[in-house]
Write a structure and sequence with these properties.
- It is a single chain.
- This protein has 207 residues and is α+β, with helices and mostly antiparallel strands.
- The chain contains 7 helices and 5 strands.
- It has a 5-stranded mixed beta sheet, with helices on one face.
- Strand 4 and strand 5 form a beta hairpin.
- Helix 1 runs antiparallel to helix 5, helix 3 packs parallel to helix 5 and helix 5 packs across helix 6.
């Protein structure tokens, strides 16, 4: 399988999940500005939506949308315990978390990377993110991860999104549970491996 990715983008979440599950992936780097594939190629031909992640399966089908991809990868290796079994209420809770992250956190971050964003809009979006993170902070109270003491695909997604805070100058230091969560996830070997492979840190120890 091929994972079309851009370093530090939301495609980092399925990269982490694949590592956690022990699923080998061929990484294909995408220039998200020009919509080209390195060393050459048209990313539009792979994903007409024009954004990462995209997962090309061995039979040629292409799966898009991060929350769908991470669940697909988790279900390939159920023994890794990265997602509860389909049909259980725990799985619905996982989907609830993924939907919250993609609609309330991910999509609120996205416009903040636009340098032309009006200052008043920027301030409103930052304040909105803090209100959304306040709910996550309460959810993490007394827990290692979102659903308790077991790492799931939702934790991978939350970790990646929250790493964007520094890039948009969002101070999350008022959320100690969240900050502890970020350190905890960053220390996982599968996460370190993904960060190194995407060129985000020099080596696993520095992650």
């Amino acid at each position: 399988m091929k994972l079309y990715f851009s370093p530090a983008a939301c495609s980092l979440a399925p990269h982490i999940v694949a590592n956690e599950a022990g699923i080998p992936l061929e990484l294909v780097k995408v220039d998200t500005k020009t919509k080209t594939i390195e060393p050459e190629g048209d990313f539009w031909a792979v994903n007409p939506k024009g954004y990462v992640p995209a997962l090309e399966l061995d039979d040629g089908q292409v799966l898009t949308e991060g929350p769908a991809i991470v669940q697909y990868l988790a279900d390939l290796k159920p023994g890794a315990g990265l997602a509860p079994a389909n049909g259980t209420f725990a799985r619905v809770r996982l989907q609830e978390a993924l939907n919250y992250l993609t609609s309330e956190i991910h999509k609120t971050f996205s416009p903040l990377f636009n340098p032309a964003l009006l200052p008043e809009v920027r301030d409103e979006r930052l304040a909105y993110l803090k209100r959304r993170y306040a709910l996550i902070e309460r959810q993490l109270e007394g827990k290692q991860f979102l659903s308790g003491d077991h790492f799931t695909v939702a934790d991978a997604y939350l970790f990646v999104l929250t790493n964007w805070a520094r890039g948009v100058r969002l101070d999350l230091s008022e959320f100690p549970n969240l900050m502890a969560f970020q350190k905890r996830v960053a220390a996982r070997p599968a996460v370190r491996q993904a960060l190194v492979r995407e060129g985000l840190v020099k080596d696993a120890k520095a992650a």
